[in-house]
Fold this sequence. Notes:
The structure holds two protein chains of two kinds. By secondary structure, chain A is an alpha/beta fold. Chain A has helices spanning about 75-90, 105-115, 140, 145-160, 175-185, 220-235, 250-260, 270, 275-290, 300-305; strands at about 5, 10, 15-20, 40, 60, 65-70, 95-100, 120-130, 165, 190, 195-200, 200, 205, 215, 240-245, 265. Helices cover about 35% and strands about 20% of the residues of chain A. Chain B folds into two domains: about 5-95, Translation factors (Elongation Factor Tu (Ef-tu), domain 3, Beta Barrel), CATH 2.40.30.10; about 105-210, Rossmann fold, CATH 3.40.50. Helices cover about 20% and strands about 35% of the residues of chain B. Chain B has five helices and 16 strands. The longest helix of chain B is centred in the C-terminal third of the chain and has 14 residues, at about 190-205. Classes of the chains: A alpha/beta, B alpha/beta.
Amino acid sequence: MNLSAKVGILELSNPFVAASGTYGYGTEYADFSPAKEWGAVILKSVSRKPRPGNVPPRCCETDSGMINSIGLANVGLDKFMAEKIPAFAKANPDAFCIASLAGETLDEFLCLAENLSGIKTIKAFELNISCPNVAKGGMHFGADACASRQLVEEMKKISKVPVWVKVTPSTTDPTGVASVCAEAGADAVVATNTIPAMKIDIGKCRPVLGNTFGGLSGPAIFPASLRIAYMIHRALPELPLVGCGGVDCGEKAVQYILAGCSAVEIGTATFRRPDTLADVKKFLSEYMERMGFNSIEDFRGLAVRK
Amino acid sequence: MKILEKGVVISNFEKARNLHFMEIYLPKISAQIKPGNFVSILPPAESGSFLRRPFSVAGTGEKTIKLVIRDIGKVTHAITSLGKDDAIEVLGPLGNRYPDFEPDKKIWFLGGGTGIASLMFLMVERNNSADRILWGGKCSCELPDPAQLPSGFALATDDGSAGECGNVAEVARRWLSSDKPDYIVACGPKGLLKTVQNLSAETGIPVWISCEEFMACGMGACAGCAVPLAAGGYARVCADGPIFKAEEVVL
């Protein structure tokens, strides 16, 4: 079965993409779902300076998912370039690698792009303008159409690789944000990121997370994220779209494709089942065979057109 | 190499109130696991829980691993409700391991609650009769009958209802008046680890601790199980730990 997927000009061996923040620096899951098995893997968001991350506890469980407040903990640009990218490239010479960029300011995003744009291993950027867990986690870009437009326009001037924009679900107008990104030249929009959430410890009478709030992920958010992807594709059918949020089985991945997504990110599910990728690939093959679809394009967006 | 393995429960004994000693047939993981490593268990479906749960390993048998689990919530209840021949899915070995302590050095193992697990594993592997192991709990009802434990086990309870009276660090302090280990290894609740950390600072005896933190991936990918480092920043309990030198971490 031909599982290849096309996201704009990028051709992926399959539509499954390891979501940023859940796949580390691309070597941690080598024993279960090595990078080359994915259509693409997105490494943990990198910022210009190292970030220690938020005060623990940083995660907790919820019904059908979890809340995290990692706080963009990462090694910073210098170490990312000197250690993480070479280690990834050595372990995964054939893998398709995307760098997730996190900046507090436009300049920081541009600095990241300038430094990483020439690196052969990195085939695309995903702009994280939707992290809910740090004061300036990029959400102020995601929530502000003017700032989003300027960011994407400037990034496109500098970047030698396609630019994906990961948008927030925390907006009343996801289609508007996607539309601004598309007009500014984004090569794809990723819908969406975690949903702001919290949990309270009734014994300690205080919030569970050290940062009080975090981002909800896992199957719990799937229907809400799917709706946003569907709305974006319905409004902007030409815009390459990547679904993200709550996929833990092939059936949910197929729903994103039927909603118009060319690729589907998988993250939190891998924590529960490190072998999720093999399961979703198998399901997708069987589904396509059963339905008589020869390629992803045969059924992508079908649910929006029906 | 980390392995995802479908295991079978060989035995499950409740050796004290809600405290279960379980042995699980896992030939691949058993062949690789070392003292200090942990495994991560897929919650049985009836628990309704999403994330795996980490457990220290208390030893190995013939193609098996041994666990000590306290039934304190829906996941641990579902796991400790499993009986002989029930299936269980386990991911491991995870985390780092205890250092290779010199065989002729004397070690004290100080454990609280289910923290005793990895200490039992290391003590049995070392097989050094000069080592001592102390297991603390609030009262006798939390701890197994000493007759059911390997020889050399000492118990400590806050109320003196079993073994020596006092918490683990207090009892270890008393021991120090007549004996002294080369190293201390501790695992248990944060309060216990803090007192043992202080003991290390006071006596200069090198101490290793096994830390616990809520985990999401258990594989070093998500940075969810952060523990603050004395030198600044954080370490991941699942991948940089769970074993740390006592002075490295801020509890």
